[in-house]
């Protein structure tokens, strides 16, 4: 009996080994059906083995074995498949043994795994194959309940009168043996599952360690002290560039892979470890791989074993330090470069701790500080306030505010300031700094450059530029004055000569010729004045909303008469051109000047191209003269010729008044200066592009106007419509000759005129009789009341009084008061008779309407 029990325990332990193999296998992990099948096979074989070693209970020779544990767990852990396999094996062995009641044995062989299967469904294991403690109670109860069937079946077959009692007593023996088998099998499975879990965890840790070592440049080695070989794992093989599987490597091979300069030191350290002089050690060395690559390594090792203090084995770990060493080398090179730069910079590098802004700490300042402040770095470390004492006192508050703002906004700070060095020298410094946060400290990394020489040079350049500008201005004024004097003297000569001849001439026809010649000369003087004012950007302009394409189409009628047939005119007008607000007469005059210049540049033969375009300009300066132009929408008018171009030496002077490259008598030199003044006064500019021998292009940029493209129309009058009908006109003009002329013109036109020589006198006349229909006044006059002030004072007496202003200077109306209204008309002297009468008729008509 004891032999049977021993054999049964041995079989159960062997089954536990097989179950452990199933639990720990990585190939079976996650494949539950296959695991359950193998569990059924193992428990089925165990049932067969236990059945062969069963103990026969006397007197009926009933076999007693330990099959209950394997059968019930075959159903609980093996599921339907395991229960079927183990139950079939048990039924087969019962039929094979042919006990006294084979049907009962077959029933129990199939029923026990079925109980385990049912309990497995009702109380399944939460962490298979771990069997929870509460499930054992259900399994034992279910197993004991099965024996009611054998008692009922076997009891009547016993010939004695107490058959049921004998059957029950026998059942208790089977229950005790079966329960013991179940509990022993449970413990074996618990340990199998535990060992399998620990083995799986160890395998996973080992796998992770191998991966970590391989990918971190680390490796492990192991050697016996007396052996000539050393074991390298995969990490060590990779570190030394050996294309081998993990295994033994001769020590001589390892020695050939160590840098010759480091090998003696490494061998000496190993010798100390082998003799037990050092139990553990660490050493840095270099590795030379077979391909010649140099790597930096660090090895740690420890010896173990040996009763005499000498180790028998050495275990070690090697790590790759190449990245660290290369980074250190780069950092060292960077530090050296910065040191060289700091030594050669015309300034100083320093670092400050600004965590406490009221008490900043100087952490570093380069030694060149002595060249700027006159203090050594040691003196500044001892007394950092020396820097602030040298700082310009009037700039300290601004400098501190800029630094504080840079720290708060995390933006770089640049500032130029003045210092007084230790020896009293004045120096200019450029400060450039930025703040960073490191280890909860606010640090400012800064560089200060000595720009004293640059500031001195700039000051000298500015001084020389001012001198040059004044000289050029004086030269331009002289040239302008000479040109104006020359042209006006010629005009005055014509006017004076014709008036003198007119005084002695009695022939009406000759008188008319002389009079017309004097008028023509006077008009030429007015044009000259207008051109000068255009150059000065002070001309009187009357802007209209125009479509430049329509203006150019209208201009083609007179272009053909201006240019010879040998010049071809080409136009490229962009459709949907934006409207512009511009003075039409000034525009046509500028266009005529450009066309005549192009004609002269081409010597009467070539191609003239006129084009328009819509442009959006966003740069601050657009033309070669570096004149500001506000960003926005512009309309471009370009006039191009195929002439000789403009020489390089002449390009800077083409817009100066009276400058011309034409022969004497061929041009006044005011055309381009007038165009530039007109364009600037209109809010635009002029660009010129030229190439000698190829031609020239002038581009006029007009600001695009808002609103419609409809052109404004000024009232026009026929000769008979400008005559007066007895309206009363009050004239204020301080020049006697001009006043007499105005009175004569107005009276001959049918107006009743009262003339005064100042604004004060005109106010007195009007105050006494405020029934005048119109005020015609000069703007600048002697006395307290200028023209605009006079108009404002009279309109306080009568608000609907029409006013016509006259002036010899374009901006007088803007400079001397605010008495102007939109409906008022302003005339530029000299004014022709028809213009005066038309202006008077216009304002009177507006009042009547």
From TrEMBL:
PROSITE patterns: HIS_KIN, PAC, PAS, RESPONSE_REGULATORY. It comes from the Bacteria. It holds the Pfam family HisKA. Residues 334-410 form the PAS domain. The keyword Nucleotide-binding applies. Residues 728-844 form the Response regulatory domain. Residues 281-333 form the PAC domain. Its EC number is 2.7.13.3. Residues 483-706 form the Histidine kinase domain. InterPro entries: CheY-like_superfamily, HATPase_C_sf, HATPase_dom, His_kinase_dom, HisK_dim/P_dom, HisK_dim/P_sf, PAC, PAS. One of its GO terms (molecular function) is ATP binding. It catalyses: ATP + protein L-histidine = ADP + protein N-phospho-L-histidine. The keyword Phosphoprotein applies. It is an enzyme of class 2 (transferase). Keywords: ATP-binding, Kinase, Membrane, Nucleotide-binding, Phosphoprotein, Transferase, Transmembrane, Transmembrane helix, Two-component regulatory system. Gene3D superfamilies: 1.10.287.130, 2.10.70.100, 3.40.50.2300, Histidine kinase-like ATPase, C-terminal domain (3.30.565.10), PAS domain (3.30.450.20). The chain crosses the membrane at residues 6-26, 38-57, 69-94, 101-122, 134-154, 166-189. The modification 4-aspartylphosphate is found at residue 778. This is histidine kinase. It comes from Puniceibacterium sediminis.
């Amino acid at each position: 009996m004891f032999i049977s029990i021993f054999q049964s325990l041995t079989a159960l332990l062997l089954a536990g080994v097989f179950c452990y193999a199933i639990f720990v296998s990585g190939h079976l992990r996650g494949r539950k059906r296959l695991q359950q099948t193998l569990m059924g096979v193992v428990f089925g074989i165990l049932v067969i083995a236990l059945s062969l070693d069963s103990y026969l209970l006397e007197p009926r020779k009933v076999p007693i074995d330990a099959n209950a544990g394997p059968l019930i767990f075959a159903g609980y852990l093996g599921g339907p498949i395991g229960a079927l396999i183990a139950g079939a094996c048990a039924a087969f062995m019962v039929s094979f043994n042919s006990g006294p009641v084979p049907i009962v044995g077959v029933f129990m062989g199939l029923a026990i795994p079925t109980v385990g299967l049912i309990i497995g469904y009702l109380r399944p294991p939460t962490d298979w194959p771990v069997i929870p403690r509460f499930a054992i109670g259900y399994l034992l109860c279910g197993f004991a309940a099965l024996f009611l069937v054998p008692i009922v079946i076997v009891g009547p077959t016993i010939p004695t009168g107490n058959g049921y009692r004998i059957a029950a007593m026998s059942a208790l023996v089977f229950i005790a043996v079966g329960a013991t088998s179940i509990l022993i099998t449970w413990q074996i499975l618990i340990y199998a599952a535990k060992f399998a879990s620990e083995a799986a965890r160890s395998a996973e840790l080992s796998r992770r360690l191998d991966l970590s070592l391989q990918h971190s440049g680390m490796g492990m080695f192991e050697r016996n002290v007396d052996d000539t070989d050393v074991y390298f794992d995969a990490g060590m093989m990779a570190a030394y560039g050996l294309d081998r599987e993990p295994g033994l490597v001769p020590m001589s091979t390892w020695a050939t892979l160590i840098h010759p300069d480091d090998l003696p030191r490494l061998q000496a350290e190993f010798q100390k470890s082998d003799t037990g002089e050092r139990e553990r050690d660490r050493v840095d060395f270099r590795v030379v791989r077979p391909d010649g690559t140099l790597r930096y390594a660090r090895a740690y090792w420890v010896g173990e074993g040996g009763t005499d203090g000498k180790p028998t084995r050495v275990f070690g770990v090697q790590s790759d330090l190449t990245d660290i060493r290369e980074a250190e080398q780069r950092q060292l090179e960077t530090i050296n470069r910065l040191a060289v730069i700091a030594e050669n910079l015309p300034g100083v590098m320093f670092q400050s701790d600004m965590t406490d802004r009221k008490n900043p700490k100087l952490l570093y300042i380069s030694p060149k500080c002595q060249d700027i402040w006159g203090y050594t770095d040691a003196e500044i470390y001892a007394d950092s306030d020396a820097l602030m004492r040298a700082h310009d006192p009037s700039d300290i508050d601004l400098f501190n505010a800029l630094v504080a703002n840079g720290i708060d906004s995390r933006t770089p700070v640049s500032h130029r300031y003045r210092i007084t060095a230790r020896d009293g020298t004045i120096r200019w410094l450029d400060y450039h700094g930025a703040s960073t946060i490191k280890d909860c400290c606010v640090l400012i990394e800064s560089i200060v450059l000595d720009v004293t020489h640059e500031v001195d040079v700039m000051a000298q350049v500015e001084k020389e530029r001012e001198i040059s500008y004044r000289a050029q201005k004086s030269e331009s004024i002289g040239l302008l004055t000479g040109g104006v004097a020359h042209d006006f003297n010629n005009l005055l000569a014509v006017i004076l000569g014709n008036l003198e001849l007119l005084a002695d001439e009695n022939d009406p026809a000759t008188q008319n010729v002389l009079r017309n010649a004097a008028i023509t000369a006077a008009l030429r003087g007015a044009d000259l004045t207008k051109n000068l004012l255009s150059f000065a950007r002070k001309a009187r302009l009357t802007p209209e909303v125009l479509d430049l394409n329509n203006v150019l189409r209208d201009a083609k009628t007179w272009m053909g008469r201006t240019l010879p047939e040998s010049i071809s005119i080409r136009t490229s007008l962009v459709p949907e051109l934006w409207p512009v607000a511009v003075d039409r007469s000034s525009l046509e005059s500028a266009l005529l000047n450009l066309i005549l210049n192009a004609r002269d540049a081409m010597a009467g033969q070539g191609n003239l191209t006129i084009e328009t375009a819509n442009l959006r300009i966003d740069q601050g300066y657009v033309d070669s003269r570096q004149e500001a132009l506000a960003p926005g929408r512009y309309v471009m008018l370009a006039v191009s010729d195929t002439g000789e171009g403009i020489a390089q030496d002449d390009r800077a002077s083409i817009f100066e008044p009276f400058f011309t490259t034409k022969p004497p008598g061929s041009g006044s030199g005011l055309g381009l200066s007038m165009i530039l003044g007109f364009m600037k006064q209109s809010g635009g500019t002029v660009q010129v592009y030229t190439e000698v021998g190829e031609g020239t292009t002038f581009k006029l940029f007009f600001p695009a106007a808002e609103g419609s493209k409809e052109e404004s129309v000024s009232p026009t009058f026929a000769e008979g419509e400008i005559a007066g009908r007895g309206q009363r006109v009050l004239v204020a003009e301080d020049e006697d000759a001009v006043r007499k002329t105005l009175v004569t013109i107005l009276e001959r036109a049918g107006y009743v005129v009262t003339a005064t020589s100042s604004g004060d006198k005109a106010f007195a006349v009007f105050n006494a009789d405020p029934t005048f229909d119109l005020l015609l006044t000069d703007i600048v006059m002697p006395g307290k009341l200028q023209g605009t002030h006079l108009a404002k004072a009279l309109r306080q007496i009568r608000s609907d009084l029409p006013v016509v202003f006259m002036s010899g200077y374009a901006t007088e109306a803007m400079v001397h008061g605010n008495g102007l209204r939109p409906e008022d008309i302003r005339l530029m002297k000299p004014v022709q008779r028809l213009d005066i009468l038309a202006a008077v008729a216009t304002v009177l008509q507006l009042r009547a309407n």
